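User: Look at the shape:
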Amino acid sequence: GGLVYALLVKLTMIAQGHVQDAHISAVAASALFAKVTKTAAMSPWTDISCSGPSYAANVWKSASQKGDPIFSSGNFAEDTELFKEDPRDYLGDAYPGQLHNPLASPMFASADILKLMPPTLIVAGTAEVMLSDSTVFTEKLRAAGAQATCIVFEKMWHVFPMFSEGCGSGSPIKAAGDAYTAVTEFLKIEVVQGPAAKLDQPVIGGPTT
């Protein structure tokens, strides 16, 4: 999910002449960006510096069985090292100096760039370590003037919709199904007019006017 927004940030910055890319012109970048009418993401990683408060707050706690089971070492230091592996691979020689570069971490894009992002729906869970990557990014989009909504599902973990079948239990996870419904309804409004999904879940904002 985070790579989608990183790409949109890059296309915008190329189109505005802030950065150059040998493989795409400003005109082409602008044309490609214009084709993206909406975006939806589930638990996007928008801050590869892993600096949000949820990385510590939602670390897995085996004693209480609370937190994010996807990252289940129970040791924040170990989890943090795990989180760093992907940025190291992604940034290569640029690591760690580019962790806050908006081309890698869209969370740190300027308001002038974020305000141009297409209408966005983000789905996340209250238990996931990357929760702040969703909620804070949504708040920044809205503060910049973009249309953005984040639906946060209680007690759900990172990328929980992927486990909609019930994690092998035989009982489907309702929240996962609701998340897919919300994303489907949000994205198809462009083609078929209809009401957006109404869910009994915490929501950060609605579309700005």
Q: What stands out?
A: The CA atoms of residues 111 and 144 lie 5 Å apart.
